[in-house]
Amino acid sequence: MTTSEPLVLGIESSCDETGVGIVRGHTLLADALASSVDEHARFGGVVPEVASRAHLQALVPTLHRALDEAGVTLADIDAIAVTAGPGLAGALLVGVAGAKGLALATEKPIYGVNHLAAHVAVDTLEHGPLPEPAIALLVSGGHSSLLRVDDLTRGVTPLGATIDDAAGEAFDKVARLLGMPFPGGPPIDRAARDGDPLSITFPRGLTGPKDLVEHRFDFSFSGLKTAVARWVEARERSGEPVPVNDVAASFQDAVCDVLTRKAIDACRSQGIETLVIGGGVAANSRLKAMAAERAAQYGITVRVPRPKLCTDNGAMVAALGSHLVAAGTAPSKLDFAADSAMPLTLVGV
Amino acid sequence: MLVLVLDTATPAVTAALAEVRPSGHAVLAQRATVDGRAHGELLAPQIDALLAEAGVKPRDLAAVIAGVGPGPFTGLRVGLVTAASLTMALNIPAYGVCTLDALGLRTAGRALVATDARRREVYWAVYADGRPLTGPAVDKPADVAPRLAEYAVTAAVGEGAAKYADVFGLPAGEQLYPEPSALVELAAQRVRTGVPSEPLTPLYLRRPDAVEPSARKPALSASER
Ligand SMILES: [Zn+2]
């Protein structure tokens, strides 16, 4: 690490996590997080207004924690990065306006960045510079996308995305069906360890021969979710106990099978040897194991950051900001808008 | 002492630079753009332009005064999070003022202050010679109207008063949005005496829209059950 590398502070507020991260170059110095997840649990999903209120309360305390953790002051910071989109409009706006306030006060440049590109960039904090081109699989409660990354400072190319539910959403809904808490990823992962993934055959969305023509790199999890609901209900009606662990394992395998199959297909079809996986679902143990196993057969390297960096956080935003500063990218103007539907082709605004 | 004044509780995205003196205060420059959907885009550049115009550096500011609403949530939060991050970065105090109080400050006799709460409701309070007689509330104009007779209200200001003038049966004054000078006046003594920074808690007055999920819907069709 050299001190000539930019010191960048990143702010994330696109969903239910208020994150502030600080990086110097590719080195992570602080990753402070405040989550409103508990406030959403009883609603079975993130309530936008509840999230926005929590961001407003949490932003300044989280900034203080990050600065303390990194042992730096705002005066030391070279640039401020903030998630400009995509995400929940009201939630994004809290982070964006807060970041602009900091930029005004410190007279430092500000970068409004793409949340999804930040999920890719965060891996550099763990594994160093990303070989380009790379394929990125981003899976969370809010997104399920396959991307081609040629130059992270200039934009990424979307190859496919979910046509209905996000992968994480399917985990949440199936968890609820099985009486597990929100968010559903961790309890399903745990239950699945004691279940037989081959015991029930659940559908693999968009993997039929016709689908592979029109939707080769797209995902669909809505049918799978319904199939699990029907299976569980039929069991309940017949009066037999529901084998929760087997259902969890079979469902999880169906999701991971489709995700890894399509991600590896994307790598192979484009002759790309690096696969980065990010987003909250990347913390799933089965997804990581299955991806590693299948990638190894084709000499593809899989990079998955540690779970805390996979879920939404400020460090990922700082990492992308640092990347943009290093590349000499022009900062954003102070009038940029939070864009809840920010396209992937835009890395910054 | 130079202070920055912000209010984003109405469609008027308002920023001003003011000077608080040992006695009295003056607004040096102010900007307000009426656009209820663009607080996030407009506020920061307005502050930047105000400071540049006045040749003032952010570090010259001694405090930030912010309208804490009530007002539509998304816009309101833009002003409050901007004030919070600015004061944090500059290590200066923040002071909150109820936006309705700023609108009511210069009214005479019994006056209604009403702003637009959207959803066919108003944020409102009644003032007696500029001082609040009731706390801020959010209601349908038709439910506010009978209360006005109770309080013997004879005047009304604010965008909500203009929009529902026929329901209230009161001619609306010209003032639609809060004036920076009124916000400064309501916080000037706190600035002068250097009272500790206040948490800028928004006056939401409404709970978030959220419904707890109902019981599971059956996944099997009637014929399959
Ligand atoms: Zn995310």
TrEMBL record, chain A:
Cofactor dependence: Fe(2+)
Major subcellular site: cytoplasm
One BP term from GO: tRNA threonylcarbamoyladenosine modification
Gcp-like domain residues: 28-318
UniProt-listed Pfam families: TsaD
InterPro entries named in the record: ATPase_NBD, Gcp-like_dom, KAE1/TsaD, TsaD
Binding site for substrate: L138, V139, S140, G141, G142, D172, G185, D189, N284
Its biological purpose: Required for the formation of a threonylcarbamoyl group on adenosine at position 37 (t(6)A37) in tRNAs that read codons beginning with adenine. Is involved in the transfer of the threonylcarbamoyl moiety of threonylcarbamoyl-AMP (TC-AMP) to the N6 group of A37, together with TsaE and TsaB. TsaD likely plays a direct catalytic role in this reaction.
Matches recorded under NCBIfam families: gcp_kae1 (TIGR00329), T6A_TsaD_YgjD (TIGR03723)
UniProt protein name: tRNA N6-adenosine threonylcarbamoyltransferase
Lineage: Bacteria, Bacillati, Actinomycetota, Actinomycetes, Micromonosporales
Automatic annotation (TrEMBL), chain B:
Superkingdom in the source lineage: Bacteria
Pfam families, per the entry: TsaD
A cellular component annotation (GO) from this entry: cytosol
Gene3D superfamilies registered for this protein in UniProt: 3.30.420.40
GO term, biological process aspect, one: tRNA threonylcarbamoyladenosine modification
Matches recorded under PANTHER family: TRNA N6-ADENOSINE THREONYLCARBAMOYLTRANSFERASE, TRNA THREONYLCARBAMOYLADENOSINE BIOSYNTHESIS PROTEIN TSAB
Protein name: Gcp-like domain-containing protein
Species the sequence originates in: Catellatospora coxensis
Organism taxonomic ancestry: Bacteria, Bacillati, Actinomycetota, Actinomycetes, Micromonosporales
